[in-house]
Write a structure and sequence with these properties.
about 500 residues, alpha/beta, Immunoglobulin-like, TIM Barrel, binds alpha-L-arabinofuranose
């Protein structure tokens, strides 16, 4: 979004303390349907599931003998809701876990699989009943493209190259035959392969130069088989670490096969998820303005080395990471946190950033799908609920595959109104996020070209940023229809404080 002051006529009514909803401001936004940014690849709405806490075991995977309804061991309710949401891509098995995972532990007869200690996330043991075949089956069940993160930190090039062959070689090699004997004669056709994860930290504590050397060596042996063209993803920085990117790219000969470069960007929360203050709310939501800056700066730096943009930028892990409660972790698993109205706003702010920067990104994966950090679903034994973040993604789903177009909104210190817009043939899709707790916004979206008609809108809103869908009140915050008016070249919509609104309208005359 170009942060240009479009209209100086913004005004604020006085408000005090709790009379938040009475404060209203008028905002004008300019949408330019003919100024195309780029296609919003569905993969910008991607997700991530790690062997961590109860994301896999107890969350997505309950086992075939569980009394919890399941499909071959996959929690049925989770499968149904994730399929309904239409997750475009799912990254697995980590995270930090990836660089200590040995794929052979997770294939073959389940009773013969070894029990291993998950050293990154609490030294608990895993029986490896969820392995490569189960992951691919989950992806097929929910309609997601699989993305596997390989082990560089404690693994070998041989181990990773064999994993690729096991997954992708059509038939006739010992590894392909082994896959067939384990129940999958058809190759898995896994395109996306991460060459390590956070190798500056849990993935081996390497310098950029050391990692670049590992990357070159590993990638040499990762090959295309059959009709599956690999998309190899290198470990990028944590946050906006330009030094990592510069040194990694300097050490990388131009001919190296590298298709993606993965930065991680978490939005830390100072408080427990249900006990945010206005200050911690503002501080966390403001990080999404920094995220946008980080994407711009990382891409600009990559462009110096990669003028034709052959290397795609990923935000491979992102989301809110709040103060974790040890007692809740004991009950629900490591890195469990509640997902509130604030978390949904954060998700929508992130997706708006990705839409606006659609020409600079190839994939973004929220961390993580179930019970860990910024989750879509939470489970407690047999119970499973959709979080506010699930609904934020649902509300913004119409943008997937559409072409992002330019939006100009008023200059204001974050957290302020956030907008993204896209176009698919004669449909205009606009998502507006009001992250402010203390003012509603009357927004007029003026179109620089074209006429809008047949507008409809949905909203996700709750006046309390600490409110959440819980196991007791699973449907407290759900999307609802919302009034919007379209007249000529303008759309008008009211945003209550703490609200996400997606408008869809027919567009003609562009
Ligand atoms: O998502 C939790 C952890 O955060 C991942 O394992 C790691 O990659 C990152 O530091």
């Amino acid at each position: 979004m170009t942060r240009r002051l479009f209209l100086a006529g913004t005004f604020a009514a006085p408000f005090s303390g709790r009379a938040r909803a009475q404060a209203r401001q008028s905002e004008k936004v300019l949408i330019e349907p003919a100024v195309e940014i780029g296609v919003i690849r569905p993969e910008l709405h991607g997700h991530f599931a790690e062997h961590l806490g109860t994301c896999i075991y107890g969350g997505l995977w309950v086992g075939k003998n569980s009394s919890i309804p399941n499909i071959n061991g996959h929690r049925k309710q989770a499968v149904e809701w994730l399929r309904a949401l239409g997750i475009p891509v799912l990254r697995w098995p980590g995270g930090c876990f990836a660089d200590d995972y040995h794929w052979r532990d997770g294939i073959g007869p389940v009773q013969k699989r070894p029990r291993r200690v998950n050293i990154h996330w609490g030294n608990y043991t895993e029986d490896n009943s969820f392995g490569t075949h189960e992951f691919i089956e989950l992806c097929r069940l929910i309609g997601a493209e699989p993305y596997i993160a390989g082990n560089v930190g404690s693994g070998t090039p041989q181990e990773m190259r064999d994993w690729v062959e096991y997954c992708n070689y059509p038939s006739g090699s010992s590894l392909a035959d082994e896959r067939a004997a384990n129940g999958s004669p058809q190759p898995f056709r896994v395109r996306y392969w991460g060459v390590g994860n956070e190798n500056w930290g849990c993935g081996g504590n390497m310098t950029p130069e050391e990692y670049a050397a590992h990357y070159r060596r590993f990638s040499t042996y990762l090959r295309d088989f059959g009709d599956t063209r690999l998309f190899l993803i290198a470990c990028g920085p944590g946050g906006n670490n330009l030094e990592w990117t510069r040194r990694f790219m300097e050490a990388m000969p131009r001919r190296t096969r590298i298709h993606g470069y993965a930065m991680h960007y978490y939005s830390r929360g100072r408080d427990h998820a249900r006990r945010f203050t206005v200050e911690s709310l503002r501080a966390q939501l403001a990080t999404f303005w920094d995220l946008e800056k980080a994407i711009l700066e990382q891409r600009a730096l990559l462009d110096k080395y990669d003028k034709d943009r052959r290397i795609g930028l990923l935000v491979d892990e992102w989301g809110v990471w709040d103060r974790i409660d040890p007692e809740e972790e004991k009950r629900y698993g490591r890195l469990f946190q509640h997902i509130t109205m604030r978390s949904a706003l954060a998700a929508a702010l992130g997706l708006n950033v990705f839409h606006r920067q659609a020409d600079k990104l190839v994939m973004c994966n929220l961390a993580q799908t179930v019970n860990v950090l910024h989750a879509l679903l939470l489970t407690d034994g047999p119970r499973c609920i959709r979080t506010t973040t699930y609904y934020a993604f649902e509300l913004m789903k119409p943008h997937r595959g559409a072409t992002a177009v330019r939006v100009q909104a008023p200059e204001a210190p974050p957290p302020a109104l956030s907008v993204s817009a896209s176009r698919r043939q004669d449909e205009l899709i606009v998502t507006l996020v009001n992250p402010r707790h203390d003012a509603g916004l009357d927004v007029e979206c003026a179109l620089s070209r074209g006429i809008a008609g047949n507008a409809r809108a949905r909203v996700l809103h709750h006046p309390d940023f600490n409110a959440a869908n819980t196991f007791e009140t699973p449907d407290l915050i759900v999307p609802r229809d919302h009034p919007v008016s379209a007249s000529g070249s303008s759309l008008r919509v009211e945003l209550p404080p703490l609200a996400i609104v997606t408008v869809q309208a027919r567009l003609s005359g562009v």
